[in-house]
Design brief:
Layout (H helix, E strand, L loop, with lengths): L3 E3 L2 H5 L7 E6 L5 H14 L4 E6 L19 H11 L3 E3 L3 H4 L19 H4 L3 H16 L3 E5 L3 H13 L5 E5 L19 H33 L4 H9 L3 H13 L3 H15 L7 E9 L13 E11 L2 E11 L7
Parallel strand pairs: 1-4, 2-3, 2-5, 3-4, 5-6
Antiparallel strand pairs: 7-8, 8-9
Helix pairs in contact: 2-3, 6-7, 8-10, 8-11
Length: 333
């Protein structure tokens, strides 16, 4: 199979469609994280379907002073990776194809969620992102579109746009792909010098610390709930040597801070321990939010949540996140 390189929507629309079309939207500089998205799209589309990868560096989502000009453009390598991962076509339009009249006067507005976290740091970013996603959905006409969970706020906003504006497309989130040392794959990782990359590992370490603290707390609470409360049954447990373990579980589960507060504290501690690194980590935010609207969750919150972090190392800005579940034993993901 040869992966076709297309530059116009007319070329894409002329292709004969037999099954489902799955689209993976990218800004190029493809890496293994993108390859995972493409392989997942291939599985969803099936042998009769079609996988289309878009490569378009969208100028609308770069703010003043951001890296539009130096953003890597590696189309030949992108085409080769897309081919290996199972794509049928790469749609790489020029700016004039996507915005034929220049910058659009009518745009998608991200709303209140678009002004939080990433949106607060990068005003207008999500408006530009949603505008190009909407245009590319119209231009590629997919049945399903796939996006990485590493960009959790982006994914949440796309899902909201599709639901609120009645786009007839299924949105699929694909888990974050990481290097062996835990660093989330990103096209911007190539900007990091070796010493900067060592500092950048602080992002995933902080997230994992929060996740592990949550998992330990939930395991202790589950163990405590299993311990019988009556004196007779406690004596029976003592006979097989479990009363001490049960008491320890009760003590820790009762005394240690749990829930969202514990997750935040553990992640903050990991960040504090990294304060001595050179170069330093310039933290933008650490947030534990409800993925429905990206507002901070309360200490009594139950349900799905996202622990998110953003920081600069040198001149490179990185983001990362992990999903957590509160309210059921052993629910940390």
């Amino acid at each position: 199979m040869t992966t076709a390189l297309l530059s116009t929507a007319d070329e894409l629309h002329a292709r004969v469609r037999h099954g489902r079309r799955a689209v993976v939207m990218t800004m190029g500089a493809l890496h293994e994280g993108h390859a995972t998205l493409i392989r997942t799209a291939r599985e969803i589309a099936g042998p009769e379907g079609e996988v289309v990868v878009t490569v378009f560096v969208n100028p609308l989502q770069f703010g003043a002073g951001e890296d539009l000009d130096r953003y890597p453009r590696t189309l030949d390598a992108d085409l080769a990776l897309a081919h290996r991962a199972g794509a049928d076509a790469v749609f790489a339009p020029a700016v004039e194809e996507v915005y034929p009249g220049g910058e659009p006067q009518v745009r998608i507005t991200a709303g209140p969620m678009g002004g939080r976290l990433e949106g607060a740091t990068r005003p207008g970013h999500f408006d530009g992102m949603l505008t190009v996603v909407a245009k590319l959905l119209h231009l590629t006409r997919p049945d399903v579109a796939l996006y990485g969970q590493k960009d959790a706020q982006q994914l949440a906003l796309i899902r909201r746009m599709v639901r609120d504006l009645n786009f007839g497309v299924e949105i699929v989130g694909v888990p974050t792909v990481r290097e062996e040392d835990g660093l989330a794959l990103s096209s911007r990782n190539r900007y990091l010098a070796p010493e900067e990359r060592a500092t950048a590992l602080t992002l995933s370490r902080a997230l994992f610390a929060g996740r592990d603290r949550h998992a330990a707390q939930e395991a202790l609470r589950a163990r405590a709930q299993e311990v019988p409360s009556t004196h007779a049954r406690a004596e029976a447990l003592s006979a097989i040597g479990e009363s001490r373990a049960a008491a320890d579980a009760h003590a820790v589960a009762t005394a240690a801070p749990g829930g969202p507060a514990a997750v935040r504290a553990a992640a903050r501690q990991a960040l504090d321990e990294a304060a001595r690194f050179d170069p330093p980590l310039d933290l933008d935010y650490l947030a534990l939010v409800d993925p429905a609207d990206f507002t901070e969750i309360a200490d009594d919150f139950t349900g799905e949540a996202v622990l998110a972090i953003a920081a600069k190392v040198g001149s490179t800005r990185l983001i990362d996140n992990i999903p957590l579940t509160f309210g059921s034993p052993g629910a940390a993901l």
